[in-house]
Amino acid sequence: MIIRDMFYDDINRKVNGVIKVDQDETGVISQEVREYVITKELKKHFISFFNYYGDSFTTPTSDMGVWISGFFGSGKSHFLKMLSYLLENKEIDSVKTVERFREKFADDPATFMLIDNATRYETETILFNIDIEGSINKDKTAVLRVFAKMFYNHLGFYGENLKVAMLEKYIDQSGKTEEFRRIFEEKKGKPWVEQRKAFAFNGKFIVPTLMEVLGMSEADAQNWFSDKSAVDFSIAQLVDDIKAYIASKPKNFRLLFMVDEAGQYVGTDTDMLLNLQSLTEKIGSECGSSVWVICTGQEAIDEIIKVRADEFSRIQARFKTRLSLTSSSVDEVIQKRILKKKPEVTPKLEALYNENDSVLRNLFSFTDSILDIKGFSGSQEFAEDYPFVPYQFIIMQKVFGEIRKHGSVGKHFSGGERSMLSGFQEAAQKVQNHDEYTLVPFFHFYDTVHSFLDGSIRRVIERCQKAAESGAGIEAYDVGVLKLLYLIRYVDDIKSNLDNIVILMADDIRTDKITLREFVRKSLDRLLSQNYIGRTGDTYNFLTDEEQDVQREIKNTPVDTAAIVERIAQIVYGDIYTSKKFRYGKYDFSFDQMVDGVTVGAVTGGMKLRFLTVATDAIEKSDMRLMTESSGQAIVVLGDTPYYESLENAMKIRKYVKQRNVAQLPKSVQDIIRDQQDEANAYDLTAMDALRKAIESAEFFVDGERLTFKGGDAKSKIEQALEYLVAHVYSELDLITQNAESDEDIVRILTGGGQQRLDGMRHNQSAAARVEEYLEMQAKKILPTSMADIQSRYQAIPYGWREIDVAAVIAMLIYDQKVTVKYAGNTIQPRDSKLPDMLRKKSEIGKTMVSQRQSVTVANLKEAKEFLRDYFDVMNVPDDEDGMIDFIINKFTEQKTHYEDLLKGYEGKKYPDKALVQDAVGLMKDVLSQRKDNVALVSAVIKKENALYDNKDAMQNVEAFFKSQVQVFDAASKMLTDLQNELDYLSHEEEANRALNRIRLLVMVQTKFNYKCIPELNTLMATVREGHNRLLATKREELLEIVRQCLEAIHTAAGDNVAARDISAAADTFYTEKQQRINELESLALLDGLIPPMLQQQNTTCSRIEALTKPAPKPVTPPHTGGVAETPKPYAKKIIKTYNRQIVFPTKRLETEADVDAYVEMVRGQLKTLMKNCDGIELK
Predict the structure, then answer these.
(1) Which of 852, 868, 897 is the last residue in one of the domains?
(2) Where is the Probable ATP-binding protein BrxC 4th six-stranded beta-sheet domain (predicted)?
């Protein structure tokens, strides 16, 4: 069968791709009505509209607006046009439109009845595209003027010029239209209807015509014609004219304004929206359901006004009927209008499908696409869609939508069934002469959109076409592939990888998919090499002229191989295998990370994990070479995946962007570069995925062996390689039979716990023997060995022991007394709390020295043990060397501390035998100074046996002194200090004075102290205390008598004088306090110190009282001598102060003439002082 002969309608007939409401040719209208397809979606809209419209005949309404919304190509203009024909019941080719629709609703008579009933009455439609008919200069009344223009045109007037239209309306209302037209034609020689558009140029004919027909004067006619002012026109005036027009029509007459592209025309212009609202509201209120306004727009009316819905709420009410169209049934329209088959063809196509069912299912199996993009579901769909494939209906809609969205087409391009019709018809025409095995490849749809595309797109295709014709590296087939890649450039639902491109290029049911795949792959390679397309991972992309320029520059941007390898290393070790250490049981093994010759991170010097990329020469990847080089390494030869190319492309893009001043480039180029940056990110993701696959398919060479691992992901295979490497490289790892976990385990080993196994052997015994051998070898070489050396050796190959396990092994040797540990020159004992840190901490192991043990002789151990038992008076002195060393250090340290504590007691004191205690401390320090070396320490103890014994004997009296006698000694010393100022007084107590001198003699002795005399101090202190108490009693009596005498003198002076009472009372209080003080004081000197202030208080108080009680002097009257009387001289009383003799003559012991002279001189000075400010003194 030939495809052309399969179709019910001629495939080459003219089909309008885009419906225009102003196309009114009979042939066009006839075809549009005849071929109009009522889809399920459209049927719903017909029912909604005619239900509401039909009800208006029985229930008039003012909500007479209908808004039909839908995107470009949804069929809204076609629907509007069909409604116009139906409502007016236009007669086309002698057949009423309603009758033509009868057969379209043959399966739904109820819906047709709605249509039939609604079209029984006289109806006139005014169908127009407001975007075409409206003025370019849009003002506030733009909508009104378009409606007025179309209405007056409909009446036969010249709506283009409202001045002319108003003239014609006036003439018509006067019944003189025919007369006016006839007279004008007589004068002009041409019909009025033809000449009215040139109204301004026909003044000499119009003015006389107006004068003759309307009886106007020449001046009035000329003035009217010459008036250039705009016609004053309002919504009310237009609605009045409409209302008058429908009033002239029969009952139930309908006038419909059918306005296409109203939404696009008014947009979001507030003024025009208000104009449309006011107009529809006025028409609805004045004309009711007799006049309808039916508009189309890409957006629904509520979407247009949603920003200011409160201002336009009335327009929503008027457009109560709202119909939203989509292209969801585009395949149904195409099947019926283009692909409808002749009755006899359908069974043959169904049979053809059944014969090739499995072939077709395999052919149309897409990868990485959404589910509804698929092949044929069955024989019926095959027969309906042939020679097309179901996926093409879905993809083509998306293609048209994306092309329009990305600004590659003109405004008339449509993505619904209208352009789809053209596209499918033209594609079918291309294969019309082929047989029934032919399928339409997707690239055939390109020609449908070619003429609408921007020049930058068309030029690429045309240049490729010329290259194919001239054989310039491109073949004819490649042009189709390039067209295809452009069509799906922006469609995300289907990935433009090789497998999907093969499917989209399929043009025959019998296609060998494998052969076609190879054919397409070569075509893509050619297009890539000529820079017509780009590649991101496994997807291919069409490039515009500018994109090709950018792509070419990017391709020519050099990138260092080393930088690519470094980036591979970042991905491998930063994303795919991120572990810096390999976990093997309880062990964490570091390994050097390498890619080709690049090392990542720090070099450990242990195992190596090395990846070889395509950048490494093939010679270096030979099996023999790699088996040799892989000793101590795991070498991974990456599989053949495009990881390198992807990273190279990504790095070229980023380097190119850095080199360009993007901000200064044209916006189109900036957009391309921005897209390229997105591609660079995509390349990174592709590279990461490709690297994972490259590792999964890699060849592994581990420690001299070529290995094949079981299935698993990239990380799993790397870990298998490292596991094998660890087992072979760290061959001495199994010497550790028990792992330590913490410092507590180290301490337990040092104290002899937790080392025994069930078989009687000790854990890690072989490991300890190996370390002991090493230390013995070091000792023979006379080489110092630090703990850091040991840790480094046994953590490295071939041991690989953990740091804590190395410490545990050394702890075993320490416990077994086979090694000596020294820190800062000091021998460290097993029980030292800091020993675990010295064996483990990085800051300490370098300072910790470990050596083979040099033991103390058995004879010395025995002699030292006997001495220690006797010296410290203990029986349990350890027999082993470490135990004895611990004992010596601990005991002598305790003794030293004890003696130092005794020595502290001498601070601020004059205790006897301080030098002896200092010697004892020095002796202890001498012994302990050898603690760095066990042999030297034991030898020091033995050497100093006699000195230690002597010191211990000498220290017995000191020990006893501080234990029981120091309190008495302190009391005696305190008494000497306390009585230092009482010595003169005690000289009168001979017995107490002798006792005090004896105490002084005893406590002041510092060396060769006779400790047997200390008990004598108690008796001596009692004697001194008794004598001192007697003196205190006598002194108190003396002072109390002074208090009595002072008070007596004060009270005598005051007498009964009331004015002196307060002074007297104050004196009583003063002396009462002194009495209390006299009874409290225990010092004779302090008691003597109370006398002067008490006597001074008496004198001061008596003086004050005397001043109050002294009578005023009486005046002396001289004898009358006749002369002037002399003024008598006042009597001056002498001031005599009284003092107690003890103030002048204090108690003092005089033993020499010098003492007498000094005492007399002191008394002389005291008396001279007391004589000042008075006439004399009295001693009592």
Answers:
(1) 852
(2) 557-725
On whether residue 275 sits in a domain, the answer given is: yes
Of 853, 889, 883, the closest CA to residue 752 belongs to 883
- Distances 507 to 387, 436, 438, 444 between C-alpha atoms, Å: 9, 11, 6, 10
**Per-residue pLDDT tens over the stretch 749-771:** 988 875 555 555 688 989 999 99
Strands 533-536 and 539-542: antiparallel
The CA distances from residue 833 to 750, 751, 816, 937, in Å, are 11, 12, 18, 21
CB 928 within 8 A of CB 896: yes
Give the tokens for residue 358. 């499995």
Tell whether 688 and 752 lie within a shared domain: no
- 376, 356 in Cβ contact below 8 A? no
Q: What is the dihedral of CA 926, 930, 931, 932, to 10 degrees?
A: 140
**Cα dist. 279→74, 263, 773 in Å?**
28, 15, 111
Q: What pTM value is reported for the model?
A: 0.55
The count of other CB atoms within 10 Å of the CB of residue 928 is: 17
Is the residue at 1102 inside a domain? no
Do 360 and 475 reside in the same domain of the chain? yes
Which residues are bridge partners to 322 per DSSP? 67
Residue type, 1024: V
CA 786 – CA 819 distance, rounded (Å): 12
What is d(CA 193, CA 203) in angstroms, rounded to the nearest whole number? Answer: 15
Cis before 798? omega within 30: yes
Kindly state whether residues 495 and 381 are assigned to the same domain.
yes
Residue 830: both structure tokens together: 């097993």
CA-wise closest residue to 83 among 98, 73, 71, 93:
98
* CA dist., res. 840 & res. 803, Å (int): 7
Asked whether 29 and 92 are in contact (CB, 8 A), the reply is yes
With a cut of 80, say whether residue 873 has pLDDT above it: yes
Q: What is the CA radius of gyration of the chain?
A: 64
Distance CA 843, CA 826 (A): 17
Residues 379 and 487 reside in one and the same domain: yes
Contact 173, 136 (CB under 8 A): no
Coil, strand or helix: which one is 797?
coil
- Domain residue limits at 925: 858-970
Would you say 16 and 32 are in contact if contact means Cβ atoms under 8 Å apart? yes
pLDDT of 567 > 60? The answer is yes
Q: In this structure, are 249 and 201 located in the same domain?
A: no
Length of the chain, please?
A: 1180
Other beta carbons within 10 angstroms of residue 171's beta carbon come to 20
The continuous run of DSSP H or E covering 928 comes out as helix 914-928
Neighbours of 1049 (CB within 10 A): 18
d(CA 409, CA 486): 13
Euclidean distance between CA atoms 76 and 324, whole angstroms: 9
381 and 511 co-located in one domain: yes
Question: Are both 623 and 740 inside the same structural domain?
Answer: no
**Average pLDDT rounded to a whole number, residues 259-285:** 87
Task: Name which of 510, 523, 309, 337 is nearest 423 in CA terms.
Answer: 337
Domain count, the chain: 7
In a domain, 995, yes or no: no
Closest to 383 (Cα-Cα) out of 357, 423, 351, 422: 351
Q: Which two tokens stand for residue 482?
A: 């390039």
- Nearest Cα neighbor of 123 from 188, 30, 54, 180 is 54
pLDDT tens per residue, range 209-268: 999 999 999 999 999 998 887 778 899 999 999 999 999 999 999 999 999 988 888 877
With CA atoms as reference, report the closest residue to 230 among 126, 135, 132: 135
Strand-by-strand arrangement of the 291-297 sheet = 123-129, 254-260, 291-297, 65-69, 321-324
Q: How many CB atoms lie within 10 A of CB 987?
A: 15
Is 742 among the domain residues? yes
Amino acid at site 559: V
**Region of 965 on the Ramachandran plot (φ > 0 left; ψ -120 to 50 alpha; else beta):** alpha
Distance CA 849, CA 871 (A): 33
